């Protein structure tokens, strides 16, 4: 499926990209498969970007978050007069395809965007697996790709020159939970070495990275990993792992399985009344654990790339909270970090276009490599591997039905509640 958007939807309305097939097939690039000139695809006063995102399949929730983030960025840029390049203002248009949450389809669509649609600047897909499939394609054709949803650290060991990521790598998602538990143990007069850690992850690259980061920090602090399980492929039952948790009584249970894993963990920990001092998860916001589980989600600790309470600010959206408000007005749901980082990927492209004064792919790639930009999402500065080295992860906890930032201390709005009270003591 291919869809296209010029970002003209009124505030509060869902962009046409989400509800209709494109009528524009953008045929001008059909003859470019062999030559691939460096000039970007421009239609009059419009620069065309392309993205394959997961609109169906297992990643469809976060795929929609990704698409919505891209759309909001393009709409806002266009409202503000467009991208200023060479003394002329250009609007943004994004061509989307549905990669169906499969790597093979994602790679195929990346080829199509470049060789048939003539797209010269690519926005990343959702998930590390899809990004890993698409990156070799954009690299082959020397097409810059800015992505915000492929966090697998292995992506940044391949020597890619045309891939840039605005997010932190996935091994950092829940390291701060381990560090926070260690700090709380010390405050209570205990050694971090006395703490026990349980890990349960989905069998994918992202979650494996989360697991490795947790295990590395636990080992560094002298903690004992007492459970190290893979979640079942369907992500529909983790009772075997939770039975071990009940028996071994770890001080922290780490679960990573995208939004389905977060939903499963909160639901079954509550159903089985598993007492664990800290339940640490990924993808809490996109899983909507507060909306779905209410009080049963209380005290869950969640790794996040971004939060609306952070004091970041830019010239396009203003503060992080102002971005969140605009997002909610447009799409009628709270802004998850997957959407925020997707918006930031577009802003990185816009900044590079304007600084390079060109749509030449090599000049834009050079400008991207030199990025030093503050956005509502946080600072963006890429190292030689293409990853963002300027931004920190945040950790929040569900307290009184809201996400409250509890780490790092510089950005914290609340103090962590640790240990979480046993179920028998909860109201």
Silhouette: elongated
Overall pLDDT metric: 90
| Number of H- or I-type helical stretches | 12
- Indicate the CATH topology of the largest domain: Rossmann fold
CATH class of the largest domain: Alpha Beta
CATH superfamily of the largest domain: Response regulator
The stretches of 5 or more residues where confidence is low (pLDDT under 50) are 6-39
Radius of gyration: 22 Å
- Proportion of residues in β-strands: 15-25%
Helix content: 25-40%
For the largest beta-sheet, the strand count, sense and barrel status come to: 8 strands, mixed
For the record, give the distance between the C-alpha atoms at the N and C termini, rounded to a whole number. Answer: 48 Å
CATH 2nd-level architecture of the largest domain: 3-Layer(aba) Sandwich
Total number of distinct structural domains: 2
Number of strands: 19
What class, by secondary structure content? alpha/beta
Structure summary:
The protein has 427 residues and is an alpha/beta fold. It is built from twelve helices and 19 strands.
Secondary-structure topology with pairs:
Blueprint: E1 2-5, E2 42-43, E3 46-53, H1 60-79, E4 83-85, E5 88-98, H2 103-115, E6 122-123, H3 128-140, E7 145-147, E8 163-165, H4 175-187, E9 196-201, H5 205-220, E10 224-230, H6 239-248, E11 252-256, H7 258-271, E12 279-281, H8 284-287, H9 289-293, E13 301-304, E14 313-314, E15 318-319, H10 320-331, H11 337-356, H12 361-369, E16 373-375, E17 378-380, E18 394-399, E19 402-407
Parallel strand pairs: 3-5, 3-6, 6-7, 7-8, 9-10, 9-11, 11-12, 12-13
Antiparallel strand pairs: 1-5, 2-3, 4-5, 13-18, 14-15, 16-17, 18-19
